[in-house]
Design a protein that fits this description.
Elements: H1 2-12, H2 18-25, H3 29-42, E1 46-49, E2 53-56, H4 65-71, E3 81-87, H5 90-99, E4 107-113, E5 132-138, H6 150-166, E6 170-173, E7 177-180, E8 183-195, E9 198-208, H7 226-230, H8 236-257, H9 264-270, E10 277-281, E11 286-294, E12 300-303, E13 309-312, E14 318-321
Parallel strand pairs: 3-4
Antiparallel strand pairs: 1-2, 4-5, 5-9, 6-7, 7-8, 8-9, 10-11, 10-14, 11-12, 12-13
Helix pairs in contact: 1-4, 2-3, 6-8
The structure holds biotin (BTN).
Length: about 325
């Protein structure tokens, strides 16, 4: 009920009487009064005036369970949402939860991670109070071959979610970094449990740099955050909820098609490397060509100098621009 009270107060932007809240939620005045008291304790500035009711004063976001619930606008993605002040890693916890029966759509969000994990065994810096760290649990019923495409689906969802939340020009650097003005703003890490051809679960982790922050000198010209790019405060809960809405819609298209066919055009329109000269760094080879977008399987098509087109599978490959990160 607390999330619903928040939504109502936020939408009304005026006083809502205790009576209306009681009727709307079918509870007693004491129950409403208690819920309001708890929201205030969480940090919400709610004014209570006799004979007028309750009014939510807009102020800095209170990032937590009820804020996230009250922003979520989906049918299944992000339901339930489980907020943690601190976790070692949302991916790690999501795996434990998935093994213990958490349903598809469960979303873990942390304000801080003490052991945030990046791709290729790297760490993901995860200070408190500033960024978005979240992991969505999926229990797909499709063939294991399709699982690697989920990250690309999330890539489009994050780029579009960012664009909707703060009007920043977010692009995708294949396969799944999100960049703004040539700098990385988000990374994704999908991990899964598979037995033969059966997928037990996939945990899809996303880390988005949101608040103003200093990056270590070695990555300062490669990394950025949303607030530096758009110049104003960004609500982390709104951002996460927007990403979930986009993901839910795109994932349904992907699942029905059984490929990225229906999303290929959108993905390619967001691809920063599109039509650009790229260098492909594979464990055993390195070559150069022009990026021609992804195919239905999510492989990057790279046109070589002799005009032939080669398909690059994400795996251990990394793609760079000729003169830097993008
Ligand atoms: C990368 O190296 O680019 C991927 C970074 C992925 C970071 C996110 S933060 C939320 C989730 N939990 C983790 O431990 N990692 C992912």
């Amino acid at each position: 009920m607390k999330a619903e009270i928040l939504t109502l107060l936020r939408e009304r932007r005026d006083y809502v009487s205790g009576q209306e809240l009681c009727e709307r939620f079918g509870v007693s005045r004491t129950a409403v009064w208690k819920a309001i008291g708890q929201l205030k304790k969480e940090g919400y500035d709610i004014e209570a005036i006799r004979n007028k009711g309750y009014c939510l004063r807009p102020e800095e976001e209170v990032f937590g369970q009820h804020e996230l619930e009250s922003r979520m606008n989906t049918r299944w993605a992000g339901r339930p949402v489980l907020f943690h002040r601190e976790l070692s890693s949302t991916n790690l916890q999501a795996k434990l939860d998935a093994e213990n029966g958490a349903a598809q759509g469960t979303l873990l969000v942390a304000d801080k991670q003490t052991a945030g994990r990046g791709r290729r065994g790297r760490t993901w810096s995860s200070p408190e109070g500033t960024n978005a760290y979240f992991t969505l649990i999926l229990k797909p019923e499709f063939h294991v071959e399709l699982a690697s495409m989920i990250t690309l689906v999330m890539g489009i969802a994050v780029a579009d979610g960012i664009r909707e939340t703060c009007q920043a020009q977010a692009y995708i650097k294949w396969p799944n970094d999100i960049v703004i003005n040539g700098k990385k703003v988000c990374g994704m890490l999908a991990e899964m449990s598979v037995e033969r051809d059966y997928i037990h679960y996939v945990v899809m982790g996303v880390g988005i740099n949101v608040g103003l922050q200093e990056f270590p000198p070695e990555i300062t010209n490669m990394a950025t955050c949303l607030e530096a790019e758009c110049g104003y405060k960004v609500s982390r809960a709104t951002l996460i909820a927007n990403v979930m809405s986009k993901f839910e819609a795109y994932y349904e298209i992907f699942r029905k098609e059984g490929s990225l066919k229906g999303l290929q055009e959108r993905y390619n329109s967001l691809l920063i490397n599109q039509g650009r000269e790229v260098r492909v760094l594979a464990p055993k080879a390195e070559f150069q060509g022009v990026s021609r977008g992804i195919n239905e399987a999510g492989e990057l098509l790279v046109e070589l100098e002799d005009g032939t087109v080669t398909e690059v599978y994400a795996g251990e490959v990394s793609v760079r621009g000729l003169y830097g990160y993008v």
